[in-house]
Amino acid sequence: MWSKKGKKGDREMHTLDRGELNAFLGGETSFEGKLNYSGAVRIDGRFKGEIYTEDTLVIGETAKVEGEIHVGNAIVQGEVVGNINAKEKVELHHPGKVVGNIATPALMIDDGAIFEGNCKMKEKKKEEKQDIKGMGLFTRKKETEEKEEQERVEQENQ
User: Fold this and answer.
1) What pTM, to 2 d.p., does this model score?
2) How many Cβ atoms are within 10 Å of 94's Cβ, its own excluded?
């Protein structure tokens, strides 16, 4: 999904392959409203509003995004004023800037990138871990009850 596009100084630039990009908001474009999508979207223009996806959002160097962002992955090279909630990862690359809060299980910030806000690191797939842990307790309790029942039957047969 990711390819190395080249080097800028000592920093490697990562971008999406062109074939995997579903939509593109160019540098001279502005949009206001709600954006819901699947796949990968790149914004290089201005966007004001809300963004919802389970997939990837790329905010290019010339982009300015204002609003709430709820994504699977966010790659920020431009400016974001608002909160980012990512289920997988947020990458903040130079010269990117985020003014707002970030909630994600994984955060990567390059030298020279700016982050003004709070970050909450949340566990990835926390709900699944709780279910598994709960099932383990249930299984142990059930095994204990079965063992006690078996011992009781054996005592009655003696």
Assistant:
1) 0.68
2) 17
